[in-house]
Amino acid sequence: MSVVEFMQLDLVPMLAAILACVTCGLLGTLLLLTRNSMMGDAISHAVLPGIAAGFWVTGTRASLPMLAGAMGAAVVAVVLIGLIRRLGRLEPGAAMGVVFSGLFALGLLMLVWSGADRVDLDIDCVLYGILETLIWPAAEGPASLIDPVALAALPEELWLLAGMFAVTLTCLLLFWKELRLAAFDPAFGAVIGFDPRPVRALLMLLIAAACVAAFWAVGSILVIAALIGPPAIARLLTERYAAQFLLAAAVGAAIATVGYLAAALVPAALGAAQGFNAAGMIAVMAGLGFALAAQLSPFRRGVVKQRRAAP
Amino acid sequence: MMNADFFAALTLSLGHNAAVVVLGCAAFGLAAGLVGCFVLLRGRALIADVAAHATLPGVAAAFIGATALGLDPRNLWLLMAGGALSAALGALAVRAAAATRRVRDDAAMALVLSAGFGLGVVLMSVVQSLPTGGQAGLSHFILGQAAGLAEVEAQTLIGLALVASVIAVLLFNPLRVLCFDEAFAAASGLPVRALDLSLTALMLLVTVAGLRAVGLILVVALMVIPAVTARLLTERLSIMAPLAAALGAVSGWVGASFSAAAPGLPTGAVITVTACALFLIALTLSPTRGVVAAGLGRARMGYRIGRDHLLRGAWEELEQLRLGPDAPFATAAIAAAWGWSGPRSLIAVTALRAAGLVRPAHEPGFLRLTPAGIVAAQGVVRRHRVWELYLTRAGGVRAFAAHRGADLIEHTLPPDVEAEVEAWLASADPAIARLAVPPPVEGAPA
Amino acid sequence: MNNTAALPIPALSVRHLTVAYREAPVLWEVGWATPSSGLVAIVGPNGAGKSTLIKACLDLVPRLSGEVRIFGQPLAAVRRRVGYLPQRASVDWDFPATALDVVSMGRYPRAGWLRPLGRFQREAARAALAEVGLADFASRQIGQLSGGQQQRVFLARALALEADLYFMDEPFAGVDAATEKAIVTVLRRLADQGKAVIVVHHDLATAPHYFDHVLLLNLRAIASGPMSSAFTPDNLARAYGGRLSLLDQAVAAAAGAPGAAPRG
Predict the structure, then answer these.
(1) For residue B388, with 0-12 CB atoms within 10 Å meaning exposed, 13-18 middle and 19 or more buried, which class applies?
(2) Residue A58 Cα distances to A63, A68, B152, angstroms
(3) Which bin fits A18, alpha (ψ -120 to 50), beta or left (φ > 0)?
């Protein structure tokens, strides 16, 4: 494979996958630490009607109305889940099941009805992502990386993902201690004047936005792999708060790279005409990575006990 | 055109095949609703979702394996067996991941769901490159396509759904005990592990039965949504289970009819949205747990408590100042003592004025009790004091603890408790009993 | 120092406080005022609403009615003077944080929203950790501390707030004798500095020895006041009424209060 071919066909999808997995991994860390992982699953499904509505309004795939629609849908989902839990006195899992499957089904029907599925935003995209379509035909070699004309021809999905990454990083740094307090001990935070509710709301909105951005890379169903895979693997490897985030980002980048390359290269090595689905491969890498880390973890039960007894 | 087709499908007159498909989806809804009740009550809703997503690699692997062995890769039984196997493996994987103790159940489920589904997606892309002709048939396992169901496939669905329903009905009583009190079930000699296993097996059976028609992503919706809807409408499992089954069947019937009239729509999504519509109706209108009923109940209770507090606050204020019961009192002082916001005290005052219990005094910000208000206030104060005495003097805490309604009890004292309290008062030391009655106030009507 | 000495404003006063959960403990028209300083125990049987009372005062659970004043003002106006020590079981001790991380949370109000914690605040947190005898455990992950050490980390975090009124929810629950002694020492020191500490306390035998004032609570305020006048067999019988097994224990504790040996 030549450099030009790599840049035209594989560079952008790989970058998109990395950006999506790093952004989601950072945000997913907070879900994992508050034992809210399935909320990520619920939100990633529930944003679909928002995406469909945003697409219906603008007719383009990467747009601000789409982000706004997804955030709106996420807010509706969170409010509904709370309402159903309270009124139905149900465990959170059941309330989530009702809300996210209902909204996801509604989103699917909106896609089909609006005709979006025949244009640009088909159901396969929801299921498998569209990494493979993010090509950069304008690339003519390494020089294109600093060529404004070629850069302007990059798929807009990549810019959206880069923007989401920047926003996520900024919010994480800005709200570093507030997020930590809201995750560890929200009641204490409320008493000392750090109301956890706005911080939590911000996190949910960021996750909804990240779900939209990652939607293009890995599809609606596999967003959850990007959200929970990296932090869960990182959790097996560290006991430090800051290291947990850094590792989650690193693991996110690693599973995206390895997953994408495996999907592209393994079939070629086997002589198959067509590559494997990259989004699926990334999710598989998250699972394999977890299994591997669980074997190598220095914090397995027995090990921790020994360390605790030692001093 | 579409409307006509929809009603034709709904009444089973859109042709023999369509009728069988609609019946199949209804049967599936029935089984899913029934089994879903137990899944829900056992707290397994999310596990069911994980298992459903984890069927995909099994289905795709079965397809690939059958192709390699020269068997018919579209054999429904084969694909379902593959799906069931990998779903079971997925459930085991959740347990193994959670056993590391470093991540909780929630993360373990999210991981297995995504890795399982991801593996399925990868295998699907393998299927696509097989010479046997693409994945067209397989992708229906993800979102469901009832309209394309062959008659024999629909009959299989009906058969499996009925088997699941019959087993659920046969195991109804032991499963009920298991869901409500596992410890009791074990103590009374029920084989808890075997029951739990059979519930998981039932769940898997329903899941794989629905794969082809409803799709693996939304199969869990048909287990959870009708069960939750029924839960909103009744407290009793013996009503909830048949109700959920009926709701599931109706959703399946109506949804499949829609889908038959508009074959482009994913059947699973149509059925789920139908079930959700029923759910939203129940959530709004349920007489016990609906939004409307809850709002009304809260407003009524809020009014009652506000009235009682304002009347008693006024009475106690006047008592303390040794004024007559029809003397003016300041609302602001009472509002402050009860921690009322401005709007809240305005609402309470307005409601009491409308009820003719208070009237404005000459001084701004002051009110007076009307004669009716004096009678009402005396009743409220007496009830409060009797209740208070009973709780603190008679060791009535036990009775109190049995009715955790606390403050609400004072405002809506259940008749049996009221009788108990009055009986205690009648037999109590007269010195104590006298404390209960509001002391005569100067100028009070006899 | 604050002007607590000038006027005897109660550190906490509560009127008509009613809290109703759906199916959990409740408070019913509690009226109570504490002295302006000193160690105050809230005592009562299980499910009497002791923790609920603290949480309702701190706006952590909604109140159906009632007024709460802290140093004569609403909570929002005096937040910086209020400290809180929640129940140890209320957080996830597997959280990736060190003991110093947790204690540093007590300094967040000094840093304010969106600002990083400065070196000075970190040092203050370290000092608070040293005050409870855990200086050597600053960088230990909290999950690897013993129950007593975890409780002391929570205490250090509360101390780091430098409040004038502390609410402590069962600080003695499940701790070893050494930790209990250390906590009592810290509480005593706070009282000597003129601060008020309100403690939900479970152990009737030690209550009279540790605390100056008491509130006997069982859904209502049964009795309150200085330990010597309120912690009487009669009041205890009323607070624990209907729970006969506890009643004997309660009466015995009160009868032997002044000179009784603390539990072994």
Answers:
(1) middle
(2) 7, 12, 44
(3) alpha
HSE (side-chain half, CA atoms, 13 Å) at B26? 16
Q: Which residues of C touch B102 (CB under 8 A)?
A: 94
Residues C195 and C189: their CA atoms lie apart, in Å, by 9
State whether C105 and A33 contact (CB < 8 Å): no
Going from the N-terminus, what domains does chain A have, and what CATH number goes with each? 3-296 (1.10.3470.10)
**B368 in contact with C at a CB cutoff of 8 Å?**
no
How many CA within 13 A on the CB side of residue C241?
23
Who among B102, B392, B407 is closest to C20 (CB)?
B407
Ordered structural domains, chain B, with CATH: 2-288 (1.10.3470.10), 294-436 (1.10.10.10)
Helix (H) or strand (E) holding B358: strand B358-360
**Token pair 């001790």 is at which residue?**
C93
Dist. CA C174–CA A149, nearest whole Å = 68
Which one of C86, C92, C96 has the shortest CB-CB distance to A240? C96
Closest Cα in chain B to C17? B338
Q: Measure CB to CB from residue A244 to each of C60, C92, C96 and give the nearest one.
A: C96
Residue B151 has pLDDT above 70, yes or no: yes
State the Rg of chain B over Cα: 32
Dist CA A212 CA A43 (whole Å): 10
Of C44, C57, C60, C42, residue with least CA distance to C12? C57
B344 CB near a chain C CB, below 8 Å?
Answer: no
Distances in whole angstroms, Cα of residue B218 to Cα of each of A44, A101, A106, A114, B23: 14, 6, 11, 21, 19
Pick the closest to residue C37 from C7, C67, C74 (CA basis).
Answer: C7
Chain A partners within 8 Å of B89 (Cβ): none
Residues from chain C contacting residue B393 (CB–CB below 8 Å): 238
Contacts of A102 in chain B (CB under 8 A): 221, 225, 272-273, 275-276, 279
ipTM, two decimals, is: 0.91
Residue C139 contacts A where some CB pair is shorter than 8 Å: no
pLDDT per residue over B367-409, tens digit each?
Answer: 999 999 998 998 888 888 877 777 666 554 444 443 344 445 5
Domains of chain C: 12-86+163-255 (3.40.50.300)
- Quote the DSSP letter at residue C98: B
The reported pTM is 0.89
Q: Taken in order B107, B110, B116, B122, is the CA torsion positive or negative?
A: negative
Residue spans of alpha helices (H) in B54-104: 55-69, 76-98
Q: Does B104 touch chain A (CB under 8 A)?
A: yes
Judged by a CB distance cut-off of 8 A, whether residue B289 touches chain A is: yes
Grade residue A189 by pLDDT with cuts at 50, 70 and 90: very high
Is some CB atom of chain C closer than 8 A to the CB atom of A244?
A: yes
Here the tokens at position B185 are: 């079930």
- CA proximity to A90, closest of B192, B50, B238, A99: A99
Report long-range pairs for C254-262 (Cβ below 8 Å, ≥24 apart): C254/C204, C257/C208, C257/C227, C257/C231, C258/C208, C258/C228, C260/C205, C260/C208, C262/C205, C262/C206, C262/C209
Question: Is there a contact between A308 and C113 if contact means CB atoms under 8 Å apart?
Answer: no
Is B336–C241 a contact, with Cβ atoms under 8 angstroms apart? no
The answer to whether the Cβ–Cβ distance between B225 and A275 falls below 8 Å is: no
Residue B432 has what pLDDT? Answer: 67
Question: Which of A177, A191, A243 minimises the CB distance to C117?
Answer: A177
Nearby residues of A137 by Cβ (< 8 Å), 6 or more positions away: A8, A153
List the subunits that have 3+ CB pairs under 8 angstroms with B.
A, C
